[in-house]
Specification:
The chain has about 325 residues and is of the alpha/beta class. It has 2 domains: about 1-115 and about 245-314, FAD/NAD(P)-binding domain, CATH 3.50.50.60; about 120-240, FAD/NAD(P)-binding domain, CATH 3.50.50.60. It has helices at about 15-25, 60-75, 120-125, 135-140, 155-165, 185-190, 290-314, and strands at about 1-10, 30-35, 45-50, 60, 75-80, 85, 95, 100-110, 115, 130-135, 145-150, 170-175, 195-200, 200-210, 215-225, 230-235, 240, 245, 280. A hairpin with a 2-residue loop joins strand 14 (about 200-210) and strand 15 (about 215-225). The longest helix has 22 residues, at about 290-314. The two termini are about 25 Å apart.
Length: about 325
């Protein structure tokens, strides 16, 4: 049995739910498939201080619950499930939910997001959200005047370290090799920053911390020298993992244009993909900003562009 809809939204983070709000208000009667992590990456963040409208800060889960409720209020049909197959070869588009139900959509908004790459340490999982973060812009404020470590050697890692150096007492930049792959201009800024120390040929072996009931905090980082295998420790209050993100786009390989890193390519200044009627919003098409507010803004744009597409079709 097939269902026909005007707008299908794949994904449920800030971009997906915001697309639902705008598409509902445009009377597109959108169906939104939440995926395996309703609310997206923000739901594994503790306190969020930089999302407009919450002057005292708020938990990431609470923000997403608020935006979800707003989408529901305007009529977004939010459903539990996974989109397991898409066919963008002809219009309208055929999408399969949970490998069985088929939806034929006039427009599709992809908002599946991107996931941070982690180190894979058990202690990293233990302290994630309690001293371990993948976003300096999101969480750096909490470490003002403290000592932190940034893991990585690309432009993103160096940008995070420079950002934190403005807030923190001391920043250790930990890299597994003896040279960065970041741009020379970025490296120059790092080497000229007094409170930023580079630890070459080091990899994190263990994140150290303290636990008392539900309270946890990071106290240090154990490192392994990649050449000598010797162990060492540094005392820190926070760890920022900056080894990259992976866009959730496996479903769309061969269906839509992706860049070399797997991000969906959109036309500059729009959310339009190379397939007319298919739009991409949020981190799935944004390797640069990766903020909840920019994701929400692109969800708004995608819904408006979907509305215009349907109007032009009719």
């Amino acid at each position: 049995m097939q269902e026909q809809v005007k707008c299908l939204i794949i994904g449920s983070g800030p971009a997906g739910y915001t697309a639902g709000i705008y598409a509902s208000r445009a009377d597109l009667k959108p169906v939104l498939i939440e995926g395996i992590m309703p609310g997206g990456q923000l739901t594994i963040t503790t306190d969020v201080e930089n999302f407009p409208g919450y002057p005292e800060g708020i938990g990431g889960t609470e923000i997403m619950q608020d935006i979800r409720q707003q989408a529901l209020r305007f009529g977004t049909d939010i459903r539990t499930g996974m989109v397991t197959k898409v066919d963008f070869s002809k219009h309208p588009f055929l999408c399969t939910i949970d490998e069985e139900k088929e939806i034929i959509a006039e427009t599709v908004i992809i908002a599946t997001g991107a996931t941070a790459r982690w180190l894979g340490l058990e202690s990293e999982k233990t302290y994630r959200g309690f001293g371990v973060s993948a976003c300096a812009t999101c969480d750096g404020f909490f470490y003002r005047g403290k000592d932190v470590a940034v893991i990585g050697g690309g432009d993103t890692a160096l940008e995070e370290a420079l950002y934190l150096a403005k807030l923190c007492n001391k920043v250790y930049l930990i890299h597994r090799r003896d040279e960065f792959r970041a741009s020379k201009a970025m490296q120059k800024r790092v080497f000229e920053t007094a409170n930023l120390e580079v630890l070459w040929n080091k990899i994190p072996a263990e994140i150290l911390g303290e636990k008392q009931g539900f309270m946890k905090k990071v106290t240090g980082l154990q490192l392994t020298d990649t050449q000598t295998k010797n162990k060492s420790q540094i005392a820190i209050d926070g760890v920022f993992v900056a080894i990259g993100h992976t866009p959730v786009t496996d479903l769309f390989v061969g269906q839509i244009d992706l860049d070399a890193q797997g991000y969906i390519q959109t036309k500059p200044g729009t959310t339009q993909t190379n397939i007319a009627g298919v739009f991409a919003a949020g981190d799935v098409q944004d390797p640069h900003f990766r903020q909840a507010i920019t994701a929400a803004a692109s969800g708004c744009k995608a819904a408006i562009e979907a509305e215009h597409f349907i109007m032009n079709q009719n």
